[in-house]
Design a protein that fits this description.
Layout (H helix, E strand, L loop, with lengths): L4 H10 L12 H14 L39 H7 L5 H8 L3 H7 L3 H12 L11 H9 L4 H4 L5 E12 L3 E5 L14 H8 L1 E5 L4 E11 L11 E9 L6 H4 L5 E9 L5 E8 L6 H4 L17 E5 L2 E7 L6 E9 L6 E10 L1
Antiparallel strand pairs: 1-4, 2-3, 2-7, 4-5, 5-11, 6-10, 7-9, 8-9, 10-11
Helix pairs in contact: 4-5, 6-7
């Protein structure tokens, strides 16, 4: 069998024989066959071709990591300003519980007077603070721990009480009245007894300015002192917010003094008492107390009612048939020459 010289040379170089272009086993022929088949096959529009289904699942993307240092913001749970702001939304009990969790929270909550000042003004619903000599945490505790004036003294006389609310006195002059008819008659001169006889009201000076708290007290009859007596006396009891924190009050050296007693010897429909800041007597909020229909209830409602305004407080209790009442006015001074720090207006049936 004869071989071509070119084939022999190719065999000597690589040991493999190159397939000729027209050979059946050559790649050139196969390529040409595929091209011819593609030309003969019909062209399919890709938009009309059926969609293929995805057989693979979802895998996470592995992004390349940067080796360069990047800035990362640091967050700390112990941010003083943040927790001081959060504390504004907590009541007194929750504040104490928060302060008991750790020394850091105890310092933020229990030692920050601004937190308790905000809580006190918020819960007492007074618009602005006044200068005080005690810490606000102690003031808050004395205002909301259930204490009242008869808890310190004359406990045997006390029957029941209710919180009326807080108000402010800033002019150092107040109007005390037993009548809530509009318009109010303001006495201009004379003794307290003459003022009461002519107008049913009196003016008291040297009032300690600041925030005051009012309670409505129900006590036993002060005349006979018998435990079997069913007689009771209603008392509008107002005090300066720091009264319970003073040693003079707690040890009993500060006492109530009777400044006036006024008898109404006729059948009285209701027992009324009110304290107004004289300078702001014509304020819209104070004059709203004289609109009795808005807060005293139905005519047959004999339950005690009370209303507090930013600069005034009043109580109203409808009475059964009676022979009259006696109204007593008491004040307490902070020492012999101190300002008046507490006022009581009492009503007793004759």
């Amino acid at each position: 069998m004869k071989t071509r010289s070119s084939d022999a040379q190719a065999a000597n170089r690589g040991g493999k024989r190159k397939a000729p272009e027209g050979d059946d086993n050559g790649r050139g022929k196969r390529r040409s066959v595929r091209i011819e088949e593609q030309k003969k096959s019909p062209q399919i529009d890709r938009r009309l071709a059926p969609k293929r289904t995805i057989s693979r699942g979802i895998h996470g993307c592995v992004s390349p990591r940067c080796s360069a240092p990047t800035h990362r913001s640091s967050f700390s749970w112990y941010e003083r300003d943040v927790w001081a702001y959060i504390a504004r939304f907590l009541d007194g009990k929750s504040l104490v519980m928060l302060g008991a969790t750790s020394k850091w929270f105890n310092k933020i909550v229990m030692e920050d007077d601004a937190v308790w000042r905000f809580a006190c003004l918020r819960d007492l619903q007074v618009p602005k603070p006044y200068p005080v000599s005690s810490s606000w945490v102690k003031i808050y505790a004395s205002a909301f721990d259930g204490s009242h004036s008869y808890l310190f003294h004359q406990q045997e006389k006390h029957i029941d009480w209710m919180r009326v609310g807080a108000f402010t006195l800033d002019s150092r002059v107040s109007l005390l009245t037993e009548r809530l008819s509009s318009p109010l008659k303001v006495p201009r001169e004379g003794t307290i007894e003459r003022m009461l006889e002519s107008t049913g009201a009196c003016i008291v000076k040297d009032i300690k300015s600041g925030i005051w708290i009012a309670d409505l007290q129900l006590v036993r009859c002060p005349v006979c002192g018998l435990s079997t007596c069913d007689g009771t006396m209603q008392t509008l009891d107002a005090r300066h917010i720091e009264l319970f924190l003073n040693e003079g009050y707690k040890n009993g050296s500060w006492e109530y003094n009777l400044i006036a007693s006024h008898k109404l010897q006729k059948d009285e429909v209701a027992a009324c008492g009110a304290i107004f800041d004289l300078k702001h007597l014509k304020a819209s909020s104070s004059s709203g107390i004289l609109n009795l229909k808005s807060w005293t209830g139905a005519p047959d409602d004999s339950q005690p009612k009370a209303m507090v305004a930013p600069l005034a407080v009043a109580v109203h209790t409808r009475l059964q048939e009676n022979e009259g009442i006696v109204v007593k006015y008491h004040t307490m001074k902070a020492g012999a020459d101190g300002d008046i720090v507490s006022i009581r207006i009492s009503h007793q049936l004759l």
